[in-house]
Amino acid sequence: MLKIYNSLTREKQDFVPITPGSVRMYVCGMTVYDYCHLGHARVLVVFDLVQRWLRASGLQVCYVRNITDIDDKIIKRARENNESIGELTARFIRFMDEDAAALGVEKPDHEPRATEHVPQMLALIGQLEKNGLAYQAAAGDVNFSVRKFPGYGKLSGKSLDDLQAGERVDVDAGKEDPLDFVLWKQAKEGEPFWASPWGNGRPGWHIECSAMSSELLGKHFDIHGGGQDLQFPHHENEIAQSEGAHACRFVNYWMHNGFVRVDDEKMSKSLGNFFTIREILKRYDPEVLRFFIVRAHYRSPLNYSDAHLDDARHALSRLYTALKAAQPGNSEVDWTEAHALRFGAAMNDDFNTPEACAVLFDLAAEVNRSKSAELATQLRGLSGLLGLLRRDPQVFLQATPSGGEEMPAERIETLIAARAAAKQGRDYAAADRIRAELAVAGVVLEDGVKGTSWRRA
RNA sequence: GGCGCGAUAGCAAAGCGGUUAUGCACCGGAUUGCAAAUCCGUGUAGGUGGGUUCGACUCCCGCUCGCGCCUCCA
Fold it and tell me: What pLDDT score does A170 carry?
């Protein structure tokens, strides 16, 4: 039985889908005006893991991850770049797709874009107005009236009065309450706009997720995910909008992944301490980055550093080395086998991927001892469920990070042949010189019964 | 100020009221022409002060420290 930690109740709960046998899941995706950073990589990978495990558990999954392609920052950036919003967002959507693909993230079933769902948003705003939860302020913005929605704050554990007491709340004269949030923004001069019953304007940020989730998944669905920083106000506001408009429960299970940190501080665009995915991939294999994310629990903070990625790379090499030494078959995972049972139990315990990884390492040790093809098959099969160990071990072990200036494989092979000749003639000094030369180039030789193989250190 | 999360060995990171987490690094041994990889073995833990218990890293309370949200952010 799968258990999921529900942010709404703050406890692990048995996962019971609304419709037996199928799951509907919505995850807040990217605002596309810049390259994805490591924090984005984490959401992509974490919910890819969730999605994979749900499917592996035999559930039919409808996974939706939205794309925010209209907002203040996009408008600002397009203006700075002197290009159209469409050009800007198309480019960064492409980059996002490339990054996600590199990390082994499977495509969601739907990737709705905000700009393609404005009519649905307007309908939702209309319904909120009809229900007495929305009002148009003097300046033209349409706001959501948080005081009129009972239960506002239930997801983030905040009370409206505590929020009022805070010092960081915007003061906007047009709002009836400072905490009211905007559903529809009145267009200013030179800004893109859509026509609406409330005048020309564009959607507020939160409304798109309420509109697109109900469009694709219905008014009530199973799982809603996103980064921890979206819990408040974004997800709180989504609940207010969706439940306020539809008068029924919105989401059963809320999942929030922990932050990526740098030097124990949140990695974020505002702090400017972020690393983009493609920057990292110039120096590390994408699978290493994926493994780095997979081996931490999704709710824990994850500290980024080169040392940690180096560590992840060495650990992943151990798994691939075990695979290389055996001959895994192509059959499916045998779920009656001991390691698979442990793996399944770990994943069912709120997606405990660190524990699942520990099982993989135990399995690898077992494979190394026994050279069992069956266990090697299990190792590859279980790892595959995490999106790992999909490549030929040789390819991984000999891979160079993109843009690297390592010694080419042909040159390495030539040197290995020369060394073999030297060894044949018992000239071990010459053989060791060649090994040393390769070692300097970051190449490690491994003499075996079937000859010499090599890998990058 | 309000709300919440965390503190595990050299580093990273899990489970668990009593029995080996796991990975990297380190040490000893096997293996090797020498290595590497692998195997065998050893060691290194759970912030601090109390409490509950036959027994606590694991449950409860206090304290200290760190982090997050309360403002756009995955």
Answer: 55
The answer to whether residues A422 and A430 touch, using CB atoms and an 8 Å cutoff, is yes
Please check whether residue A295 is in contact with residue A352, taking contact to mean a CB–CB distance below 8 angstroms: no
Spell out where A17-57 has E strands: 22-31
How many CB atoms neighbour CB A442 within 10 A? 13
Reported ipTM: 0.96
- Across the beta sheet with A265-266, what order do the strands follow? A265-266, A260-262, A302-304
User: Which of the residues in chain A have pLDDT under 50?
Assistant: none
Which regions of A137-258 does DSSP assign to beta strands (E)? 142-144, 181-186, 201-203, 221-227, 251-257
Nearest amino-acid residue to B21, taking CA and C1': A358
Query: Which residue is closest to B24 in terms of CA–C1' distance?
Result: A311
How far from chain centre, in Å, is Cα A178?
Answer: 33
CA-to-C1' span, A362 to B16 (A) = 18
CB distance A196 to A182 below 8 Å: no
Q: Which nucleotides of B are covered by protein (CB under 7 A)?
A: 1-5, 11-15, 21-25, 32-40, 66-74
At residue A399's C-alpha, the angle toward residues A397 and A405, to 5°, is 135
Task: Judge whether A184 and A203 are in contact, CB under 8 Å.
Answer: yes
Residue pair A344/A50 in contact (Cβ under 8 Å)? The answer is no
